[in-house]
Task: structure prediction
Amino acid sequence: MNILVIGSGGREHALIWKLAQSPRAEQLFCAPGNAGTAQIATNIALSDNDIPALLSFAQENNIGLTIVGPEVPLVEGIVDVFEAGGLRIFGPNARAAILEGSKVFTKELLAKYNIPSAEYQRFKHTESALKFLKSNSTYPIVIKADGLAAGKGVLIISNHAEAEAGIRTIMEDRVFGDAGNEVIIEDFLTGPELSMLSFVDAHTVVPMVSAKDYKRIGEGDTGLNTGGMGAISPNPLYDQELEAFCLTHVIHPTLEGMRKEGRPFKGILYCGLMLTSDGPKVLEYNVRFGDPETQVILPRLKTDLIDIFDAIIDDRLGDLDVEWDSAAAATIVLASKGYPESYPKGLPISGLEDVDSSTVFHAGTKIEGDSVLSSGGRVLAVTSMAPDVAEALRISYASIQKIEFDGMTLRRDIGS
Ligand code: AMP
Ligand code: GLY
Result:
């Protein structure tokens, strides 16, 4: 069948790369894609948020399956629109994607169904938030904009002045637009973080192999939060006992709650957890694959990915045996100098063709003539597989020595 992948990051390159391995894949398209997806698929110059244009493209090109990488089109209802247009598309509809689209919705759901998460308050007005903060004496606290904010809507606040400034930037200066119509103020939790991704249909949850994402820009987990500077799989903190706990106390009750609310979920459920001294607590839900987690999870998947997506769309995931490679995987993100703030674009990248022991997933890249140029903050993710994580990391770091672009920025401590 013909397949369309929506998005342009390393996650989408990894999705296309995996889908291309299926004997069931005919023509592959990526909208808008990058220089890496162009090597195995046809890039279509459509924005990943232009739902009407994507629908027309899929209808006109006999697309049998569409997969959505990023959250914005999911939250905006691309699944509903494609289904109404008679197309098969993988992911949650808008009513279910609210699990990522509104932090207020999710906090209320978690509280209603007794799912462990930080204590919180919600505020619709600056004055009530500021009044609450006046009576608050415990810091740090966490302020979150309700809606989507490209991963920037979470502020960790260490004193009253910062808290007031944070509330004003979100609610009055409206730096995140309507996403800041409401805010959550919640307790600050501590502990290691864990991402748990699962395949979900109406009846069945199949957890994926575990992964660990390195979110901060600086070594030793310092500096600004990024989309993710590297990942390893498996996550050394994850074991059968933890998986069983999270399924019983977090994932199943969340999905049951969504059904009771008339919002049945299907697709990829990404649960961000903090392992506190008080047990695992939910930080957030995403309704899609993680980036760069996908670049270490999909290389370990042995089952045909088209079969999995198909089974989920038809609610027969339970009939499928999802199999994983026991080998470990590691990915190192190569970013532009200045990321996650401002950074240059259009820099030539060399050495890509010399990498032979790793898979280079492209993120912010584009082709101009014969050259591959940088075009985003996260530029490449270099993934390797080996019997253990340490060896996979060694191979990736060796491969990276062959790649060059001006200001190439990476963390040398992924996995440690
Ligand atoms: P989120 O987008 O909700 O996952 O938040 C982004 C990051 O902020 C998380 O990965 C955590 O590192 C941090 N974070 C979010 N909520 C809390 C919390 N209640 N306590 C401490 N850190 C948090
Ligand atoms: N790596 C975190 C995310 O995809 O949201």
Observations:
- The pocket of adenosine monophosphate (ligand 1) is lined by residues 118, 142, 154, 156, 186-189, 193, 215, 272, 283-284 (CB under 6 Å).
